[in-house]
Write a structure and sequence with these properties.
The complex is a heterodimer. Chain A is mainly beta. Chain A has no helices and eleven strands. Chain A starts with a strand and ends with a strand. Chain B is about 0% helix and about 55% strand. Chain B is built from no helices and eleven strands. In chain B, strands 2, 4, 5, 9, 10 and 11 form a six-stranded mixed beta sheet that branches. Chain B has a five-stranded antiparallel beta sheet with strand order 1-3-8-7-6, with no helix packed on it. In chain B, a hairpin with a 4-residue loop joins strand 7 and strand 8. Chain B starts with a strand and ends with a strand. Classes of the chains: A mainly beta, B mainly beta.
Chain lengths: ~120, ~120
Amino acid sequence: NAGVTQTPKFQVLKTGQSMTLQCAQDMNHEYMSWYRQDPGMGLRLIHYSVGAGITDQGEVPNGYNVSRSTTEDFPLRLLSAAPSQTSVYFCASSWGQGFGGYGYTFGSGTRLTVV
Amino acid sequence: GENVEQHPSTLSVQEGDSAVIKCTYSDSASNYFPWYKQELGKGPQLIIDIRSNVGEKKDQRIAVTLNKTAKHFSLHITETQPEDSAVYFCAARVTGGTSYGKLTFGQGTILTVHP
């Protein structure tokens, strides 16, 4: 099924550990982004990419790193996990400018707990 | 940057009643307004969207209205059913030209439909 695939679904980390959240889409979308969802805060943008080799910071980028070497993949790296990074992380993709439809397609999320 | 405010944060209705969720946005350049439904343990799913050149859009029991002058838009659900119970997010995005436009979300509304 076409869509956005996130792995893992659940992860527990110890403070100071690093890890990579994986995101892949098979819709040839140009635009990909990472959001975190916290209670009462809605969805906040961490990083986004408008195409392979191009990334930029969102609203809450500190402590996270991204790269986009292919159109399909957009991994999110936690450099040194902190309890404040306990959250649910969503990857989303969409067409860029010039294509029909601007709605995002979301993955099913990664629930991360940092202890 | 864009700021989207969403109200109410929680909404409880009886089955068959109507539900209305309201959002305001700050950036007059925003021209695309989607609504997402998020069920427990899943990623948000696009349910309806509206462009700024349209004042109202309807899809079966769901409708969205947009007032560009006042910079607010609303989601209307008629004849609510228990399966409408979920978290609903509004969002705003600038599309067109050379800007890919980040999607900015409201804080979310927890809708509960009682049988």
